[in-house]
Amino acid sequence: MKSFNVPVYAGVDGGGTNTRVLLVAPDGGCLALANGGASNINTAGPEAAATNIEATLASAAGSLGAKPDYAAAFFAMAGVNDTTARDVVTTLVNDFQRVRISGFEVANDTRALHAATFGVGSGIVLIVGTGSKCYGRAGDGREWEAGGVDCLVSDEGSAHDIAVRGIKAALRAMDGRGPATSLQKRLFDALQLSEYGQISQRLHQDSLENPGHPMTKAEIAALARHVTQSCQEGDAVARQVVVEALDAAIETVVAVAKKLEFASQGLQVGITGGVILNEPGASIFRERLEKALPGARILIPQIPPVAGAALRALALGGVNVTPDIIANLKKTLPVGA
Question: What's the pTM value of the predicted model, to 2 decimals?
Answer without folding.
Answer: 0.85
